[in-house]
Amino acid sequence: MGPSRRRYYLGIDIGATWVKMGIVGHRGFLRAKEEFDTREIRSPRQFLSRTQETIEGLLKASSIERAAVGGTGVGAPGWVDYSNGIVRELTNIPKWHDVPLADQLTRATGLQTFVDNDANVMAVGELIHGAGRGHVNFICLTLGTGVGGAIIINGKIYRGARGLAGEIGHMVLDHNGPRCACGANGCLERYVGNRFIVANAVRRLEEGRGARRRSTILKLANHDVNAITPKLLAEAAAQGDAIAREVWRETGQYIGTALAVLVNLLNPECFIIGGGVAKAGHVLFDPIRKTLARLAMNKLGRVTPVREAQLGEDAGIVGAATFARTCTETG
Ligand SMILES: [Zn+2]
Known about the structure:
Layout: E1 8-14, E2 18-24, E3 30-37, H1 44-62, E4 69-76, E5 78-81, E6 86-90, E7 97-99, H2 101-109, E8 113-117, H3 118-129, E9 138-143, E10 147-153, E11 156-157, H4 189-192, H5 194-207, H6 209-214, H7 216-220, H8 230-238, H9 242-266, E12 270-274, H10 282-295, E13 306-308, H11 315-329
Parallel strand pairs: 1-4, 4-8, 9-12, 12-13
Antiparallel strand pairs: 1-2, 2-3, 5-6, 6-7, 9-10, 10-11
Helix pairs in contact: 1-2, 3-11, 5-9, 8-9, 9-10
Residues 170, 180, 182, 184, 187, 189 line the site of zinc ion (ZN).
């Protein structure tokens, strides 16, 4: 069967909490999907067998022949050596060091497998099927447990000398700031990663006693601070809660500051922001745009659009599958 008959690609999105997999058609539509809890996976070896099993299940459930699948793409949240198919290090998932995942998965499944950083594959998805269509130079950010970044230059992922390029989440905003998982201090992720947004809200609730009683955040959380999530904070902000709005304003300012640095450095056509936290919408995007407009040189922040990613929930899967397609097509 020639390449043109291989109409489907498999996408695997490894997240800190969920591993999501799916079969994606040429236009970026998801044909079948499956997911499992990342924390159930104790080692890369176990990941391999679980993945193999899941792929078999997906093919069966969708009645798609293996021969119609052109390959598999994997997005992993950390440092990936793309050209050798090796996962070097995953910041938020322990026990992954120098795993030759592309080779292992290719052998285990009989499908040619390509591995890259999760934000990189998401950017390829947005480039071909989403908010990046029509652009050749842009920067993607994914906001979740971690903060991922990807740089597209001339329609291609810019990886740098050792494949680490685009780690925007670890841009140092304050060298005296709080310690980050990467070992540095004051990284962007240390302020706007999921749990740090929540911690910011909890701290503000503890500081302001009167405000605490009135806060919609606690009402929505049934007075359990452990139930506070970015999603809940977005809801509280939408209902006009002062603390929630302040948390999002500060979160947006940190992100906007990073984007201003990137405008001065790379002068992209636009920014595309995705991931769960981006669903907060305008309470987050307004302060991002405002800060970017204020800090970037020559007022360029005002003419550099900040867009929401378009591929939504399944951006990771669709991105990984689309990435595999571009890898096989370019040889
Ligand atoms: Zn860091």
